[in-house]
Design brief:
alpha+beta, Immunoglobulin-like, four-stranded antiparallel β-sheet, five-stranded antiparallel β-sheet
């Protein structure tokens, strides 16, 4: 024991030992701080390959600082393309509707014009013969065909014909060659008649005398032109 302390340590040795103790203590303190924080790590001093894979999550990342990733950019384009397509479809639909409306309007106008073209004086082609007893436009107000014979009805019966009033045309036999004919509801007072019977393939020679009774009512006498005798021969009657 006495031999160990025979030589006292020099001052330099004492200083070196103290420095070694201080150095080891500082490293331990630094190591403790590295475990609990990052104040000892210089900012931007670590590279990505110093991080373990899949250790950085959204919690550690400030998302607002990130730019648009490629997929998100495509999504923006897709939205724009979708809006453009929708706008185009809407425009096309509007144009199609307008075109259809314009076509329909043109067709309606053309159809109306065609209908008017078939009219004369506001009347349709089928209305050239007017059921009008009061105008003086020259249209026929009525006509009738009477198949006169000895067996013709002695009371008024309907006969074929036309009456401007829209009502019936009637006739009755009064006696040989004498008849009365009525155009019911007609105000007309002018009429003419002619024999229409067939005598052996040729027209019968005869004539008709007309005597007005009242508006739309006449007495008719049918005569043989040779003998001037009354005869039961068919006749036709017209009211201009």
């Amino acid at each position: 024991m006495r031999s160990l302390f025979r030589h006292r340590p020099s001052g330099a040795m004492v200083v070196a030992v103290i420095a070694l103790v201080v150095a080891l203590g500082g490293t331990a303190i630094a190591a403790g701080k590295l475990v609990s924080g990052d104040s000892l790590i210089k900012k931007k001093s670590l590279s990505g390959n110093r991080l373990r894979n899949s250790t950085v999550t959204g919690t550690q990342i400030k998302l607002s600082t990130l730019g648009t990733v490629p997929s998100a950019a495509l999504a923006t384009h897709a939205t724009t393309a979708g809006s453009a397509t929708t706008a185009t479809n809407a425009t096309n639909a509007t144009n199609a509707t307008n075109a259809t409306n314009a076509t329909n309007a043109t067709n309606a106008t053309t159809a109306a014009t065609a209908t008017n073209a078939l009219s004369l004086g506001g009347l349709a082609a089928s209305g050239y013969t007017q059921s009008n007893c009061n105008t003086t436009t020259g249209q026929v107000k009525g006509f009738a065909t009477v198949a006169a014979s000895a067996t013709f009805s002695a009371s008024f019966v309907n006969v074929p014909g036309y009456n401007c009033s829209g009502q019936a045309v009637q006739a009755e036999r009064i006696g040989v060659g004498e008849y009365e004919i009525k155009f019911l509801g007609s105000p007309v007072t002018i009429a003419i008649g002619t024999v229409s019977a067939d005598c052996g393939g040729i027209p019968c020679v005869g004539y008709v005398a007309v005597d007005p009774v009242s508006a739309g009512d006449w007495k008719v006498a049918v005569y043989n032109a040779g003998s001037n005798a009354l005869v039961d021969e068919g006749f036709e009657f017209i009211t201009p």
